[in-house]
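User: I'm writing a short methods note and want a consistent example. For Radical SAM core domain-containing protein, I'll paste the sequence; you return only the structure tokens, no commentary, since I'll be parsing the reply automatically.
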Amino acid sequence: MIDCINLLEDQKLVVTWDLGRRCNYDCSYCPPNRHDKVSPYAELSKLKKTAKFVLDYCNTLVSYKKSNNKDHQLISISFTGGEPTVHPDFLKFVHFIGEERKKFTGEYAGLSLTTNGQFSTIMAKNIVNNFDFATISYHAEALPTQKKKVLENIEFMHSKGFELKVNVMFHAEYFDECVTVCDNLKKLNIKFIPRLIGEHEDSKDSDAHKYTPKQQEWVNEYWGLKVKPKKDKKAREIGRPCCGDRTMEINGNKKTKFLQHTKFSGWFCSVNWFFLHIDENTEEIYHHQTCQARFDETRGAIGKISETDLILSNLKNNLKNKTMPIIVCPLEPDAHCGCGMCTPKSIDGYQFKKILSNHIEDMSIFSM
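Assistant:
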């Protein structure tokens, strides 16, 4: 039985910034509220204002976090969508935030990108020149010409020494193709993660999309799992890997990158110290995109983009007055860990504070 999880590597604060719903794909497993071809683009002036809040917020939090390596990036700002590269001012905004991050006195903030890789060679060159890292998703149900272009972009960016990772979206109907893609990426020494479809509760096929026992055997073998599948299972029944490929420590001894248990209702959690999510479409800010946990044991936004001054003021006051709250995972039927499950957490309050002390300089800041 799992009662605590610690994060052993890549302990930076990750900002996922959804620039809008516009996308050049229409994946069958992506929910309608996550992509479209008609949503308005966020205005560049508003993006610039929000960028200053993000950097100030992150700089404030990381000043309280431990760092064993002072040269290590403690902040990563990751642009998502929709498809972020379709925004007409995308590169202008990237250039702006690239300069703005230099003004802050805290640790250097890295820029990363989550994309489907469906863009021109010119865009690929710009990404190599302006970003520190990219996650590219391979969607097997795309057109052959689209998949060919994505793989060409992946190989081109890798050849330039650019750091990237490929999320291979394992569609059950294209399972063998996905295995082949993984094999080829491995030969090229390109990082990849086999991603099961239907991991998130708002996926269109979270209940319908299932993997056969034979397909599960491949997943089990890849992740070193010992469970023998007996029936078709949904992704949430199988478990999931850390989407950041981070190593977690379970119960103080076992190390893994894959959790078969992803429901932690009632657990003490530090997700707010490791994640922040900005949603330009709804103009809302969350501790985390998928779990949406708040300090009052409910799920939802912590405020609107128009309320960034208040959000920042509350954070600084809590830290200064040593009244920083601790998140308890909401006791809701659908509450479960997706991306972000790697964050330190425990079902026991004492054990949680012990784990958290590995990451926070001064534990007296907490009201717990």
